[in-house]
Specification:
heterotetramer; A alpha+beta (about 400); B mainly alpha (about 425); C mainly alpha (about 100); D mainly alpha (about 190); A: alpha+beta; C: about 100 residues; 3 helices
């Protein structure tokens, strides 16, 4: 086991050129080493949707992988070109459907930047609260499915039980649980409902013991540690070279979080920490996300206590017609850097929208992370990358 | 025929030893039916218990509290189309589930539910049991190969390597228990399953407590290896659904698939029965030597009846707690009937316990005795069954290389060491 | 029916032995050749046990256990050679294993 | 079926059992050497081995039967199947089954069979044991104590009552042989150690 991980982490940037990433094995010591090519997916329980991974195996050892994506492609970016800015807003919810609020936040902020308007402070606070709640929900779903991939069935049900509390808040706020469409360009559509603050505070009290419960099941579990420690290691240099962001990057020891690095919304007003890992293995990524959930609670607590009064909608024209120009705005979605590149030709419809989805970029790291590991680790690594195929394929 | 039927009734030998083919057949049928029912019950219990571990309700629709779910499942599986892949090896594909099933059911011929409550008392009982249960792997390997598909093949390779590896540690743990049978006056041990329990009775100690902690360690080794042998979580490498979709039975469907499930559950019960026989005193009730007075005997003989009474009470409480909506009327009646059925069984058992309390050779007394043996044996096995479910609910899955590492580098040396130390201690104590 | 005596067992054993010999001499697939050898060893075992029963002492049974040990060792080494060979030549046919080297 | 026989050790060795098991053993033995597909051959061999185990039971050799099941059917045959799956048989299943010299082999085997038949038949009728004057394999069946079979074999292998057994030394050698075989197999099979 050890030599595999060394092999992977010892790879410098030179290993990233294309000749090493394709499916041909570099050396072939014997005439026949019984290579087996199997399709993992698109219908496979552990590929989180419709990812298809072509695995080249020697026995159970992975010699190479190739991801085939596009099974969930809906042409979201192309659709944008035929919709007005407002009409496109709900579509972004359908990309990373487990973190729809973050998607909406990124899009709204990008268009606001293009329009040169700013959301009022109260709207920003509401946005932060909902986004952080959504981050927790996303991490919960990740934790449940990741644990299920590694064979622990039970955490899935616990996380879904607790995620329900967040979804209830979403539902009462905007009427939808999953694809919320919570924000509008220029602020928020809805004022918080009566009892919103109380419910959020209830959740703040309710959730920390639940995280302890998940950790009791997994963190110290010998099998969990054996399955995740030194599995899917990616060095900081490799991670940066591949453009990996989010918890995957932070677990490799790079302190890079857009909430701190380029504060957006109201994040500069809050006090929170960015957890980082050291080894860049699956266990570190797990720990980073667990700590992130607690940090999100901290942010929510500060936001809900300091939420200012005031309007929730900025001064946005009735017809949104941004000036000619282009803008790139990115936020820290639960899975990493979610960026929107919008080109405006001055009309009511964007000329081009390009989304930089974190899952898609992070998925590139799969090959370098699983080479030399076993089939079971591929499943663990796909889980730890926390990909959502709706976002990868768009 | 009638002569053969009646001549056995007074005997205290197993039908195999008494060479009574008729009763052997009756026992085989009873055991076959019993195991099938136990598998069905286990199926329901596993789904229910697992559901409650996971804050779900589990099956609730088919029958009150899903009690009829196993029957519905069985019916559905029987009616389901039986698909054989075009590229599969037809004959081998067809025969593979039967091999597994045959292996796991053949084992039951030597399992002693009581001193005479077994089909046969073989001289090589435990050896036969290990041998036949190791044949079960053939069914898995052959199924994976015959499917002519990659995931089943990987599952089959994993499974064969895993079961062959864990058999070694398992065998050594068994040997150390067999060694303990020889620490008596004559110095001769036994491989017979009945003999092993009887020698625990003679030595006045369950082997799990013998030479503490040696027996316990050997038992622990066996208890771990048996989970691996039956391909259950956390060692369910062969059918790891998140990795290999369903492992060796990916291509199977319908009745043939259900035969695999039947074989797996039957094998689980069988290995648990081995563990109970070797370390936990088999059919013996707690403290048979210490609390030997007839009053104690009577008290312990009440247990089966009281257990059923308790189950009946639970069912009754469930009936009372059902919502009083008209939708639930049939379910309510069903559960009430079920409770009444359990209550009648409980009453019957209590009546037998009272009628057979004298230790004479009357039929009631023998019946009472037999029920006691089977009850304690089944109770001990049931604990293991619950453990199997518990493991599955709690633990993630090991990776294949870690599994092999544990098998060869941890369990094997420990079991070898325990075997040696047991031998040395046995000689020294003597 | 004729009672079963040693003679009957010897006939079965002889048949198995000859089948094994035919397999060894005629088949090309090494795996099946090895299986045929197992068949031969089993025939020998059957003989040993039958004679042990005939004379009423257990030496034959003990011998058959030794033969089983030998068969296990033979199978392990034989299959090891087979795998090593397959890896180098991609064939498992005996008549292609004729170079005495690789 | 006679209730009188119910007490004591009645013969399990009914001819019917023998003919079924013997027939099964020989028939599946034929399948072993004729099947094109190695997995089918292995399955047939398993049937043979189990039938032979049944014959051992009829010969009151339960321990040998147990060893046969656990070692042969459970161990060696799983190894065989494992190896068959590792080596690619798709090609070999399309090739010739028998080598070019198969008529010679068959003739030699037939000659061997003839030798066996003559030896067996003569041993039953013509040849006699010079010491006893009996036929070489008489119809006598010695009573072997089935119930203590294992203990007696253990006595011969390990010794009893402080004495070394008749075969203790041979047994140790055999275990050494196994060790060497394990090492050899590992060294040959591993790509790099």
């Amino acid at each position: 086991m050890k030599d595999h991980t060394n092999e992977v982490s010892g790879r410098g940037l030179s290993s990233l050129d294309r000749s090493n990433l394709d499916l041909e094995t570099p050396e072939k010591p014997y005439l026949d080493s019984n290579e087996l090519i199997i399709n993992m997916g698109p219908q496979h329980p552990a590929t989180h949707g419709v990812l298809r991974v072509i695995l080249k195996l020697d026995g159970e050892k992975v010699l190479g992988t190739e991801c085939v994506i596009g099974y969930l492609h809906r042409g979201v970016e192309k659709i944008a070109e035929n919709r007005t800015y407002t009409m496109f807003n709900p579509y972004v919810d359908r990309m990373d459907y487990v973190a729809a609020v973050s998607n909406g936040l990124g899009y709204c902020e990008a268009v606001e930047k293009l329009l040169n308007v700013e959301a009022p402070p109260r709207a920003k606070y509401i946005r932060v609260i909902l986004t952080e709640l959504n981050r927790i929900a996303s991490h919960q779903l990740w934790l449940g499915t990741h644990a299920l991939d590694i064979g622990a069935m039970t955490p899935l049900f616990y996380t879904f039980r607790d995620r329900e509390e967040i979804l209830k808040i979403f539902e009462r706020y905007c009427g939808a649980r999953l694809t919320t469409h919570a924000f509008r360009i220029g602020g928020c559509q809805y004022e918080t409902y009566a009892g919103f603050e109380k419910e959020v505070k209830n959740f703040l009290a309710f959730f920390p013991p639940k995280i302890d419960e998940y950790e009791a099941l997994l963190t110290g579990n010998r099998i969990w540690i054996e399955r995740t420690k030194n599995v899917g290691v990616i060095s900081a240099a490799d991670a940066i070279a591949l453009g990996v962001t989010g918890p995957v990057l932070r677990a490799s020891g790079v302190k890079w979080d857009l909430r701190k690095a380029q504060p957006y919304a109201a994040y500069s007003e809050f006090d929170f920490e960015i957890p980082i890992g050291t080894n860049g293995d699956t266990y570190d990524r797990y720990m980073v996300r667990m700590v992130e959930m607690r940090q999100s609670l901290r942010i929510i607590e500060q936001a809900v206590n300091g939420i200012p009064e005031g309007p929730i909608m900025g001064k946005v024209p009735k017809v949104i017609k941004p000036p000619v120009g282009e803008i790139y705005h990115s936020i820290e979605a639960p899975k990493g850097e979610l960026g929107y590149f919008i080109v405006s030709d001055g009309s009511t419809q964007p000329y081009r929208i390009r989304v930089r989805p974190p899952s898609f970029v992070n998925l590139q790291a799969l090959d370098i992370m699983v080479r030399g590991l076993l089939v079971a680790d591929v499943v663990a690594v796909i889980g730890t990358l926390d990909i959502v195929l709706g976002e990868v394929d768009r | 025929m009638l002569n053969q039927f009646t001549s056995y009734l007074g005997s205290n030998l197993t039908p195999g030893t008494a060479n009574n083919q008729l009763w052997a057949l009756i026992y085989v049928l009873i055991i076959f039916a019993g195991v099938s029912v136990a598998v069905m019950a286990m199926n329901w219990l596993e789904r229910k218990a697992l559901a409650h571990f996971q804050i779900r309700l589990g099956p609730m629709r088919v029958g009150p509290h899903g009690l009829l779910q196993p029957f519905a499942d069985a019916l559905k599986l029987m009616l389901k189309e039986d698909i054989i892949p075009a590229e599969a090896d037809q004959f081998v594909f067809w025969v593979a589930p039967l091999i597994g099933l045959l292996a796991s059911f053949t084992v039951y011929t030597v399992i002693p539910f009581g001193p005479s409550q077994a089909v046969s008392d073989m001289n090589i009982g435990i050896l036969f049991m290990l041998g036949v249960s190791s044949l079960g792997v053939l069914g898995i390997v052959v199924a994976g190969w015959a499917s002519n598909s990659h995931y089943p093949l990987i599952g089959a390779l994993r499974s064969s390597a895993q079961m062959v590896s864990y058999e070694v540690a398992m065998g050594l743990a068994v040997v150390s228990a067999i060694l303990m049978t020889s620490f008596n006056e004559t110095g001769t041990g036994t491989l017979s399953m009945i003999g092993i329990v009887q020698s625990q009775q003679q030595q006045g100690i369950w082997f799990i407590f013998k030479f503490f902690p040696l027996g316990l360690i050997a038992f622990a080794i066996f208890a771990i290896a048996m989970v691996a042998e039956t391909n259950r979580a956390p060692f369910d490498m062969a059918e790891a659904e998140s990795e290999l979709t369903a492992g060796y039975h990916t291509e199977y469907s319908g009745l043939r698939w259900s035969l695999f499930m039947l074989a797996e559950y039957a094998a689980m019960i069988a290995v648990s029965a081995i563990a109970v026989t070797l370390w936990l005193g088999g059919w013996m009730r707690p403290f048979p030597n210490l609390l030997h007075a007839p009053a104690w005997d009577f008290l312990f003989s009440l247990f089966p009846g009281l257990t059923f009474l308790g189950l009946a009470a639970i069912a009754l409480i469930g009936t009372a707690r059902m919502p009083s909506h008209s939708f639930f009327r049939i379910q309510r009646i069903g559960l009430a009937v079920f409770a009444a059925l359990l209550g009648i069984i409980a009453l019957l058992l209590l009546v037998i316990a009272v009628a057979g309390r004298s230790a004479d050779a009357s039929l009631a007394a023998r019946f009472n005795e037999g029920i006691g043996y089977v009850y304690w044996f089944v109770l001990k096995v049931a604990v293991f069954m619950y453990l199997f479910i518990w493991y599955r609910a709690t633990w993630p899955r090991y990776r294949f290389d870690q599994l092999m590492k544990i098998g060869w580098k941890v369990m094997l040396p420990i079991s070898l060491g325990v075997l040696m130390v047991t031998a040395i201690v046995g000689v020294l104590v003597k | 029916m004729v009672p079963i005596t040693t003679f009957h067992y010897l006939v079965v054993a002889a048949a198995l032995f000859v089948l094994g010999v035919i397999g060894v001499l005629t088949r090309r697939n090494v795996v099946i050749v090895l299986m045929s050898i197992e068949l031969i060893l089993n025939a020998v075992n059957l003989n040993l046990v039958a004679f042990s029963r005939m004379w009423g002492n257990l030496n034959g049974q003990v011998f058959s256990i030794f033969v089983t040990v030998d068969a296990a060792a033979e199978a392990a080494v034989g299959l090891g050679i087979l795998i090593a060979f397959f890896r180098n030549r991609e064939t498992i046919n005996v008549d292609e294993i004729d170079l005495l080297k690789w | 079926m006679n209730p009188v026989l119910n007490s004591g050790m009645a013969p399990v060795a009914t001819p019917w059992f023998f003919y079924v098991l013997g027939g099964l053993a020989v028939a599946s033995g034929v399948a072993v050497i004729t099947r094109r597909n190695a997995v089918h051959a292995a399955l047939a061999l398993i049937v043979t081995l189990l039938s032979v185990a049944g014959l051992y039971l009829m010969l009151y050799a339960p321990f040998v039967a147990g060893v046969q099941i656990i070692v042969y059917a459970g161990g060696i045959m799983v190894l065989f199947l494992f190896v068959i799956m590792l080596v690619n048989i798709e090609r070999s299943s399309k090739e010739r089954r028998f080598n070019r010299m198969w008529p010679v082999g068959l003739a030699a085997a037939c000659a061997l069979m003839a030798l066996f038949v003559s030896a067996i038949v003569k041993g039953k009728t013509v040849l006699t044991d010079p010491r006893t004057g009996q036929a070489l394999w008489p119809d006598i069946i010695a009573k072997l104590p089935e119930s203590s079979n294992t203990q007696q074999i253990a006595g011969m292998l390990y010794g009893e009552a402080g004495r070394m057994g008749q075969y203790t030394f041979a047994f140790e050698i055999a275990s050494l042989l196994l060790l060497v075989a394990i090492l050899g197999a590992v060294i040959m099979t591993k790509k790099k150690i």
